Amino acid sequence: MDFKFDIEGGNFSKAGSASSDVKKVLKKLNVDPKLIKRIVVSIYEAEVNVVAHAYEGEMNVSIFPEKIVVRIVDKGPGIPDIDLAMQKGYSTASPAVREMGFGAGMGLPNIKKNTNELNIKSEVGVGTEVELINYLN
Amino acid sequence: MKVSDIVSELGLKVCSGEQGLDREIKGGYTSDLLSDVMGNADADQVWVTLQTHKNIMAIASLKELAAVILVKGYEPEADAAEQSNVEGIPILSSEEEAFELTGKLYKLISD
Ligand SMILES: Nc1ncnc2c1ncn2[C@@H]1O[C@H](COP(=O)(O)OP(=O)(O)OP(=O)(O)O)[C@@H](O)[C@H]1O
Ligand SMILES: [Mg+2]
């Protein structure tokens, strides 16, 4: 089963709406509430990263009998050094974005912590693809 | 303890989301960093913050928090209040600073 939701870069008033839609779908499918909680944390962080750091993107959810795969793909500046970006506290967020309480450099570490498998592919000047895999047991 | 109990005990103003006043509270979290709250708060907690924009409601809803309490007399932005009404998650406001308010809340909730 596949679902797709759009993400608008720069539009903070809609940040989290794709994640909220995905949460509703997972609830309807009776996915384990504990797993939903973990998935919600990671997809929200990935969604906000598109809003804060990229231009536009989408969230693709694929549900298999044994796993849930979420791919967040954006057109944006890309991430030059993924290992550096993964470090707690590292952020290139603008002062305006920080004032809103974003930009703590905790988003990617939150994703890592709440996901069975995290794959990030990025090309500078093109965009970023974040793949989150969670296994149902 | 219900949200309405802390409203009366701590003299909080109810800014929006009144229909959520009988939500049950299980602890709280104090932070102004949204990713910190996303990563560390738990369902049914009250969240103490000075952030007043709509994203606090996205987080409150996704995390299923019991209520958001704004400190230092801050009021929610209009779209945040609107979202709070839609979700039924109250936004409350306190005249106190985060330190004092969190201390009182902690005592109230853990007693
Ligand atoms: N989709 C993306 N496109 C471009 N850069 C990104 C993207 N996602 C993350 N980054 C880069 O990685 C850094 C770290 O991301 P992370 O989510 O951990 O922190 P943050 O977004 O800066 O702050 P927080 O998530 O705590 O609000 C970002 O500051 C940014 O430089
Ligand atoms: Mg982030």
UniProtKB/TrEMBL annotation, chain A:
* InterPro entries linked: HATPase_C_sf, HATPase_dom
Entry's Gene3D superfamilies?
Histidine kinase-like ATPase, C-terminal domain (3.30.565.10)
**Domain Histidine kinase/HSP90-like ATPase per the UniProt entry, residue ranges:** 19-132
Put simply, this protein is called: Anti-sigma regulatory factor
Q: Which organism is it from?
A: Ancylomarina salipaludis
From TrEMBL, chain B:
Q: Give the UniProt keywords, A-Z.
A: Kinase, Transferase
**Annotated GO MF terms:** kinase activity
Determine the domain of life of the protein's source. Bacteria
Q: How does it assemble?
A: Homohexamer.
Q: What is the name attached to this protein's record?
A: Serine kinase
The beginning of the lineage is: Bacteria, Pseudomonadati, Bacteroidota, Bacteroidia, Marinilabiliales
